[in-house]
Design a protein that fits this description.
binds 2-oxoglutaric acid, 2 domains, binds fe (ii) ion, 10 strands
């Protein structure tokens, strides 16, 4: 049975959006950004995308421009990256497997006329464990900054493909297009088959990818270089943490044994007391052992 992409208003309850995302592997939120916000985003990003040469390669395409570090280049992107209405459903899915999510990559993708269709793929294949992992590793959000039409390269997506055997390819009749107006956003799981569309029109198609992954995975974009601390310092803490200035519980991602922001706020000292950053379950065990030290005996032989 083939499925269509479900469209819901961005103001729909987070539980409804999450349920569709889990069931179909994809959902389009309409009106996630206003026309004014889209205009401002285009104004902020146009100078960069204009100077970006078209890419090279079978996957990246030959008439497609890709510009990254979007949260450093555009205040609108910095805002969209922490929109609760999008983060909520992404966290609802990914936090089943992590204590905190993080940004995976940010990339403006402008498909120019003449581009051929991108190969259908699963974004999770960035991570070698994907084929063995029965869990979701990442979620991709593509915000439409231009119309996404059947002719200009709207993203092709296969609803339901996240449940397939990883070797199964899509039949043409199973493929749908994320037709969108500017300000809509298509959200899909890392395990969902998709690909950029061919652009047979005479207009470019522009979308802003803001993707998230499990806080213990490597980030695809190296944000510590693409958004240097001098810029990140002025950003909201939520965004700083999503950029990677955070610990994933327990104890992954520290500086001098400490939460990176604690270390920053302490003036980046060259030594500092290391502190446990444990999961709630580990904290609970520590508390129980505090009350019943005899429980530790078998561990101290
Ligand atoms: O631009 C698009 O529509 C999708 C691009 C994509 O899936 C990718 O580059 O991984
Ligand atoms: Fe992709």
């Amino acid at each position: 049975m083939t499925r269509d992409i479900q469209y819901v208003p961005a103001s729909a309850p987070a539980e409804e959006i999450t349920a569709i995302l889990k069931a179909d592997g994809v959902v389009v939120l309409t009106g996630a950004a206003t026309a004014d916000e889209v205009n401002i985003a285009n104004f902020e990003l146009e100078p960069y995308i204009r100077r970006t040469p078209t890419g090279k390669g079978f996957f990246y395409g030959e008439t497609t421009r890709r510009t990254s570090a979007l949260v450093a280049k555009s205040e609108t992107m910095a805002d969209w990256a922490i929109r609760p209405g999008i983060l909520g459903p992404c966290e609802a899915v990914l936090k089943e497997e992590c204590s905190s999510i993080q940004l995976n990559l940010t990339q403006l993708i402008r498909i120019e006329p003449g581009e051929r269709p991108q190969i259908m793929h699963r974004d999770e294949d960035l991570f070698p464990i994907a084929r063995k992992a029965p869990v979701e590793l990442m979620i991709n959000c593509i915000w439409a900054l231009s119309p996404f039409t059947a002719e200009n390269g709207a993203t092709r997506v296969v609803p339901g493909s996240h449940t397939w055997d990883k070797d199964r390819l899509a039949e043409p009749h199973e493929v749908r297009r994320a037709i969108m107006n500017p300000g809509d956003v298509v959200i899909f799981l890392g395990s969902t088959l998709h690909g950029g569309g061919a652009n047979t029109s005479d207009q470019p198609r522009t979308g802003a990818v803001i993707s998230y992954n499990l806080g213990w995975l490597r980030q695809t974009e190296n944000f510590f270089l693409s958004v240097p601390w001098e810029k990140a310092a002025a950003m909201p803490e939520r965004l700083q943490r999503l950029l990677g200035y955070q610990i994933h519980l327990p104890n992954v991602g520290w500086v001098e044994g400490r939460d990176p922001l604690d270390w920053m706020n302490a003036g980046r000292p060259d030594v500092m007391e290391a502190r446990d950053a444990l999961t709630p379950e580990q904290e609970e065990l520590v508390a129980i052992v505090g009350e019943h030290p005899e429980l530790m005996a078998p561990y101290l032989v």
